[in-house]
Amino acid sequence: MIFGRGRFPAAVETFEAAVRAQDADAAERAFGRLTHGFDKAADADLRAAGPRLAALLEQVPPGPRAVVAVLSGACVERGADPLACAPAVFASALDAFEQAAVFCERWAASERGELPGHEGEGLEEADFERIGFEPVMAWQALPQFEMACVAMLNSPQVRREVPGREGLAAAVARVAELSGEPFKCLAYALAVLDDEPLIVLDRATGAGFALRVSGIGDNFQLHTLLADALIGRGLVGGQAPSADAVACCRDQAGMVPTTGSFNLVGADGEWIWNEGNPADIPVVDGVRLVVLDPPAYRRNWPAGRFFPGMTGEVVYDHALAPEESAALLARVAKPIG
């Protein structure tokens, strides 16, 4: 059932007017109608609403601000323009993570022990005065801002064109350091590479290959798509992943079992763990470089996308000249471990 024709756009318009007028009571009533009708709204109305909601974020009070960011992200998932929504969502998320760092520092200084939960478990009413209203609200809002930002970062256009990823990544890393909570989804989404050159060397044969990677969330996904790009072409030996596993790592929903084809090693000799992401791969002469060794042990996992809304690609470009591969291999350390 579609939210009655015109009712959802009217709710957006009412909320917009109340926020701009700084009418807290009217904004609260309109916000209730907005959230109540969201799931039943037509896609066309959500496409129009996404940028309008994002544009309000700076003026929305800290309490509902994160929920409005999530609503904007949900609009993007239903077709709203991510380029129009992402800058404001990133700016609000940056402010929240910076304020949350203040919260973590002040909480530690109070010697209260373990940090409270994001839904308020462990907080006291007096904490809003002792620590500050905005830092407390920011700490509670981080899961919502993580969700909203990932919705934006599913878009390759946002990842390529919208500034602010570096500053937001630094703020996320700071809060992770202070809290011990990794915010892994957002940290990995901010680290996703697009059209990134990758050199792969097969230690057993000395062959080298140039590829490009885009939209890959973790190294489980990279491992599967690399095996398809190289073993599937007959360029290196080993067991290629199934077509279903490859499709799930590219753009299909779901996960299917697969078996590891290689041991991935960096130029420094350290293993490149599947649990990491491609941005962790060490750089040699400005390009990330992976060495393929035989698997040290049999390893199985469910093949699929770390970010279900993100299309992953490993594109084979060309084989390196033998002398180029040999020169690179001569600079690679023996595997550690």
If you had to describe this structure to a student in words, what would you say it looks like?
The chain is an alpha+beta fold and 337 residues long. 50% of the residues lie in helices and 12% in strands. It contains 13 helices and eight strands. The chain has helices spanning 7-20, 24-38, 43-56, 62-77, 82-109, 127-130, 133-153, 156-161, 165-179, 184-191, 219-230, 243-250, 322-329, and strands spanning 196-202, 208-214, 256-259, 263-266, 283-284, 287-293, 300-303, 313-319. The strands form two sheets. Strands 1, 2, 4, 5, 6 and 8 form a six-stranded mixed sheet that branches. A two-stranded antiparallel sheet has the order 3-7. Strand 1 and strand 2 (208-214) form a beta hairpin. Helix 3 crosses helix 5 (82-109) and helix 5 packs antiparallel against helix 7 (133-153). The longest helix has 28 residues, at 82-109. It starts with 6 loop residues before the first helix and ends in an 8-residue tail after the last helix. The model has no long low-confidence stretch (mean pLDDT 94).
